[in-house]
Specification:
Oligomer: single chain
Distance between the termini: 53 Å
Number of strands: 9
CATH class of the largest domain: Alpha Beta
Length: 346
């Protein structure tokens, strides 16, 4: 049986990126069966009509499901899109991710070979630039780092996606990949960035994105991929190229964004951890490590107020409140707090 894949996209007031993301997706050597777009824009119908007109010929063979968001929130929109998807595999991408022409083919080859269903998620490689839609497609290789000191390399190993996330129980399995896919160019992966997420839909439906993160959903992707790792392996297909156009205009202070980061992580532990006591110890230890690391980084970058380090110290002080306070309704309390953080009043 040939596996099929659905592209799901959540968007908000960015049709100029969405149209290019769809163009690259529809240009795949292994095309999607359907595309699901959940649009939080007020004028979502205009955006839908634009996509219908732009790719009119494509919708004869690829199903387009274009709906308004039930809730204007990334986690809610991703879950809404997932419920609408019908294929075996879901590519849940940001609205500014441009796929290389054979990216889906490379990713789907891994799922095809994994006949025992040991792999839950496959991710690809971020590239420095998109391929050109006219002429011969050419992969853009990332430049090799030059002149990095051993100290800088050590710092970078401490600041990975996996390092910033504190697991609720056992760590992600990064042992050698299953035998069924070893003939392919694949490698074990740690936690997966949400901009390049693909997964088996049956597992995604069971887990979903944690909707306690309604505003500025930092850690939603690491949380999702961590919980997905309980169903199977996370692997990297480096030949699958993903370009992140990254058109978001984020104007938010470093202290505020990192305060949101540590609070979101604590909230996720409240929701998912089997032991608040163990989580408290793990989170405090992690925040203390990052507070020390970011003292050095903040100073080296002339950030004299130490905004990042202060946010992690703030996280240490808040840990007992999040994990041990007897909230009547934690989700409602944290949603209210997130709204205040979103508006800059916290």
């Amino acid at each position: 049986m040939t596996l099929t894949w659905t592209l799901t996209i959540c968007t908000y007031n960015r049709p100029h990126f969405l149209v290019e993301t769809l163009r690259y997706a529809l240009n795949q050597t292994r095309r999607p069966t359907e595309i699901v777009v959940v649009d939080a824009s007020d004028d979502w119908e205009d955006h839908r009509d634009q996509m219908l007109e732009e790719f009119a010929a494509e919708w004869e063979t690829v199903t387009l499901v274009y709906v308004p968001a039930d809730v204007r929130s990334l986690t809610f929109q991703r879950n809404q899109a997932l419920r609408l998807a019908t294929s075996d595999i879901v590519f849940s991408l940001d609205d500014d991710i441009y796929l290389y022409p054979d990216a889906a083919e490379k990713v789907m080859a891994v799922y095809d070979a994994d006949t025992d269903g040991e792999i839950a998620m496959v991710t690809g490689r971020f590239t420095d630039g998109p391929y050109q839609t006219s002429g011969k497609a050419k992969h853009v290789q990332a430049a090799e780092p030059v002149g990095r000191s051993k100290l800088r390399e050590w710092f970078e190993t401490q600041l990975t996606l996996d390092s910033h996330f504190v697991p609720y129980s056992k760590p992600v399995d990064t042992s050698p990949v299953p035998a069924s896919v070893r003939h392919l160019n694949v490698a074990p992966s740690g936690l997966i960035n949400g901009a390049r997420t693909t997964f088996r839909r049956k597992f995604g439906i069971q887990e979903g994105w944690t909707e306690v993160l309604r505003y500025y959903a930092i850690h939603d992707d690491t949380d999702f991929s961590y919980r997905m790792s309980s169903h199977g392996r996370l692997v990297l297909a480096p030949d699958a190229g993903f370009f992140h156009a990254d058109g978001a205009d984020r104007k938010i202070s470093r202290f505020r964004i990192n305060t949101i980061r540590v609070r979101n992580l604590l909230a996720l532990h409240v929701v998912h951890s089997p032991s608040c006591l163990r989580s408290a110890g793990r989170c405090i230890a992690s925040f203390a490590k990052f507070a020390l690391l970011y003292v050095v980084i903040d100073i080296s970058r002339m950030r004299v107020s130490l905004p990042t380090a202060r946010a992690y110290v703030y996280g240490i002080l808040q840990t007992p409140v999040f994990l041990f306070w007897p909230f009547a309704n934690f989700k409602r309390w944290y949603t209210d707090l997130q709204e205040k953080m979103f508006r800059g009043v916290y």
